[in-house]
Design a protein that fits this description.
The protein has 232 residues and is an all-alpha fold. Helix content is 66%, strand content 2%. The chain has seven helices and two strands, in the order H-H-E-E-H-H-H-H-H. A hairpin with a 5-residue loop joins strand 1 and strand 2.
């Protein structure tokens, strides 16, 4: 999924760079408004977790391999705005180690941190509205949305390649290869995301942004005490 330097021409790279800057800017402003204080440490842990698991590749087919993108996982745990920032930070650090080109950073952030996070979050929200309000539904919606988010991000790459690809391979061939392989990768992404969200839901459901509606409402006011007798 990581695009190297020179794979997409300069105008397309610059245009996606503007999209990436805009997406991060809006996310920073909205995250400051929505991210709760107790979730701030979790956002750091999510970014570190995504960075670590992206180092682990699992075989797919024909010698190809995939790894977790983490967009929906981050969005479900800390919200889409903070999730976008988490994934973008991971991509910036990775680009310093040649995992994705520096000049292609706007492309990679657009695909994985903007399209992957917000596209997957939109699917997650649609599924939550259609499914019963239970923890099981949150896990199922997270897994399905994560799988679809991988295909969405791969499709964004195909669009960028159609606009400014320099590889010389027909767009139809790139589309078939990217969507086909990343559909399989999406299955792995969905399983890992569902399992991870399930574990966090099991131990600290209050920290899961995508399950806030399952929290018991707070009861305001003093707890009624035992009845006392009147003054004689």
């Amino acid at each position: 999924m990581h695009i190297p330097d020179g794979f997409i021409n300069a105008p397309t790279s610059l245009a996606t760079g503007a999209v990436a800057v805009g997406g991060i800017g809006v996310s920073l402003r909205r995250a400051a408004q929505t991210l709760q204080e107790r979730q701030a440490p979790l956002a750091g842990l999510v970014a570190a977790y995504i960075f670590a698991v992206q180092m682990l590749n699992f075989p797919v087919a024909a010698g190809t391999s995939g790894h977790l993108l983490g967009g929906v996982l981050a969005a479900v745990l800390v919200g889409p705005w903070a999730g976008c920032i988490c994934v973008a930070v991971v991509l910036v650090v990775q680009s310093l180690f040649a995992d994705g080109g520096l000049t292609a950073l706007g492309l990679n952030i657009t695909n994985m941190a903007v399209v992957g996070v917000f596209g997957g979050w939109a699917v997650f929200r649609l599924l939550r509205r259609a499914l019963p309000a239970t923890k099981t539904s949150v896990v199922a919606a997270s897994g399905i949305a994560a799988g679809i988010s991988v295909v969405l991000a791969a499709s964004a790459f195909v669009l960028e390649y159609a606009l400014g690809g320099t590889g010389g391979v027909p767009v139809g061939t790139v589309l078939a290869a990217m969507v086909g392989v990343h559909t399989l990768i999406g299955i792995g992404e969905g399983i890992i995301t569902g399992l991870t969200v399930g574990v966090v839901l099991g131990v600290r459901p209050d920290l899961v942004y995508g399950a806030q509606d399952l929290q018991a409402p707070l009861t305001l006011g003093a707890k009624p005490g035992p009845a006392t007798g009147g003054v004689g």
